[in-house]
Design a protein that fits this description.
The chain has 8 helices and 12 strands. It is α/β, with parallel strands linked by helices. The strands form 3 sheets. It has a 5-stranded parallel beta sheet with strand order 2-1-3-4-5, sandwiched between helices. Strands 6-7-8-9 form a 4-stranded antiparallel beta sheet, with helices on both faces. α2 packs parallel to α3 and α6 crosses α8. The protein is elongated and about 70 Å long. The two termini are 18 Å apart. Keywords: DNA-binding, Phosphoprotein, Transcription, Transcription regulation, Two-component regulatory system. It is found in: Cytoplasm.
Length: 227
């Protein structure tokens, strides 16, 4: 699965340049032009790495970095980009939570090398699947909806993980039963799956009575919708 990177940069030319290089290197790329938008994008897309300019409008790069670390999202790497080249600026950036610091102007290939190095260190802790604010972290056994961690049962978690790993695919109740009860020595009814999904919808849907994430496909099963 592709790694997701958020580029936070108010300079259009630099932001586009970084995005082009990252997409060529097969990363999923999202962008923000200021620290306020960066918070919204972060909570929606749950990236594994953030390239962060410091001198941003609305919310500065330093403020955004401290906000992120306060969320206890330590699996996310931050590479700061700045025209501030003094040693004390670099030290301060690292102290408030950055994993790396590059000075502008920079070579895009050098930035890619720093990204690869950062993800080698932290990528194993940032294994997740995220769609529209809903994020599942199988290694940690966590599910987040934007900025809220959800409490799911074992069956609810396994159901959601299977759905999110197979987006936009109709999955029959029989397949879901096999996923939840692979060693069952007695017959498990479709109603059990329906009950688990009803409870799961209450936790992840804005309106469980009219679900938009896990939809019912009549006569066939269920589908996790992302598009």
């Amino acid at each position: 699965m592709k790694q997701t990177v958020l580029v936070v940069e108010d300079d259009n030319m630099i932001r586009e340049l970084i995005s082009i290089y990252l997409k060529k290197a097969d990363y999923d790329v999202f962008t923000a032009v200021d620290g306020e938008e960066a918070k919204e994008v972060f909570l929606t897309e749950h990236p594994c790495l953030i390239i962060l300019d410091l001198m941003l409008p609305k919310v500065s790069g330093e403020e955004f970095c401290m906000w992120l670390r306060e969320q206890e999202r330590n699996e996310v790497s931050i590479i700061m980009l700045s025209a501030k080249s003094r040693t004390e600026d670099k030290i301060n950036g690292l102290k408030i939570g950055a994993d790396d610091y590059l000075v502008k102007p920079f070579d895009p290939n050098e930035l890619l090398a720093h990204i690869e190095a950062a993800l080698r260190r932290t990528g194993q802790y940032c294994q997740k699947i995220a769609y529209n604010g809903l994020c599942i972290k199988p290694r940690k056994g966590q599910v987040w909806l934007f900025n809220t961690q959800l409490e799911l049962t074992k069956h609810e978690f396994n159901l959601l993980y299977y759905f999110m790993g197979n987006p936009n695919v109709v999955i029959s109740r029989e397949s879901l039963i096999e996923q939840l009860y692979p060693y069952a020595n007695k017959l498990v009814s479709d109603r059990s799956i329906d009950a688990h999904i009803k409870k799961l919808r209450k936790k992840i849907e804005a309106n469980p009575a009219s679900p938009e994430r896990i939809t019912t496909v009549r006569g066939m099963g269920y589908k996790f919708v992302t598009e």
